[in-house]
Structure formats: structure tokens, C-alpha cells
Amino acid sequence: MRLTVRPGGVVVVTAPRTMLLGEIERFVASKHLWLARSVARMREMRVLPVSGRRGYVRHKEEARAFVQERLAYWNQVYGFSYNRVAIKNTRRLWGSCSRKGNLNFSYTLLFLPRELADYVIVHELCHLKEHNHSRRFWTLVEKMLPDFRVRRTELRRYTPRG
Predict the structure, then answer these.
(1) Which fold does the domain 52-159 belong to in CATH?
(2) What span, in angstroms and rounded, lies between the C-alpha atoms of 20 and 86?
(3) Could you tell me which of 30, 32, 41, 33 has the C-alpha nearest to residue 6?
């Protein structure tokens, strides 16, 4: 049995067809504290206006141009070198950085407010120097985004996929 809370606070219960309604109700009741917290949190979530393969195909190159332009802008200060930049159709991650210096970004960055997309881009750029979330890493981020904590908190209210 599975209990899911989607953006907007919609609760979905998935159970085998053979399960009795009473069993399902007891299961949901046993999760009432988790459910209340999750519904409250997910009501705050903002779903972006695109998702899925169709949106990805339609906006991939536009997202690539946007990300390349923002990388060039922010990297003027850092001067880091990186290899490939990939635009992906990710479900959970906004971006990632490999140990080989490859940067990956969700095409849905295109639909975030600019200051949040910039946070993701700066975050991944800084991973080129520090492949962790140490104090040194956050100092690099803070160099260009002194308000990164506010941006990070706001970004958590969005989801790349609905």
C-alpha cells in the first residue's frame, strides 16, 4: 500500500484491489501525523507549467541557450572550466555536476524565476571546485549570491515535475 501527497496537497492512496476498505482506512489513520505535515507542505508547492517528454522536446534547445548564457555570465567571476553541458528531463533534480566536470540541468530551469535558476547554475558551477556541501562550497556560492539561503528555501517550493 502506498500513500502519496502531490503538489497542491492532493492525497493519493494506492492499494491492492483485494484489500478491504477498513484496512485502507486504518493504514491512512496510522499515518495521520505524516499526512497532515505532508499536505501542509505540498499545498505550498508550485508546479511549473510544463512537464514530461513533450515539454522537454519543445523547450530543450531554448533551455540550453538560457543555461549556456547564464553559465557564461556567472563563470566570468569564477573562471572554472567544465566539459559537457547537458539539458535533461529530470523528475527531481534541478542540476548536477559530475567529477569529470560535466554539468547537467533540467530543462524546467527555463520556467523558474530567474533568481532561482541562477541559484541552481551557481550551485552547480561551485561543485566544479568543491564536490561536496562543505563550508568551503557554501562560501563559494555566497561569493556571488549572498542571499543563497533565501533562494534555496524558495526553490524548495517548486517541483520540476507535477
Answers:
(1) Zincin-like (3.30.2010)
(2) 47
(3) 41
Q: How far apart are CA 29 and CA 1, in angstroms?
A: 13
Residue 162 — very low, low, confident or very high, per pLDDT cuts 50/70/90? Answer: very low
Compute the distance between CA of residue 132 and CA of residue 78 in angstroms, rounded to an integer: 17
Model confidence pLDDT, tens digit, residues 53-75: 888 899 899 999 999 999 999 99
Buried b (16+ CB within 10 A) or exposed e, 54-68: ebbeebeeebbebbe
Spatial contact of 121 and 104, defined as CB atoms under 8 Å apart: no
Locate CATH 3.30.2010.10 in the chain: 52-159
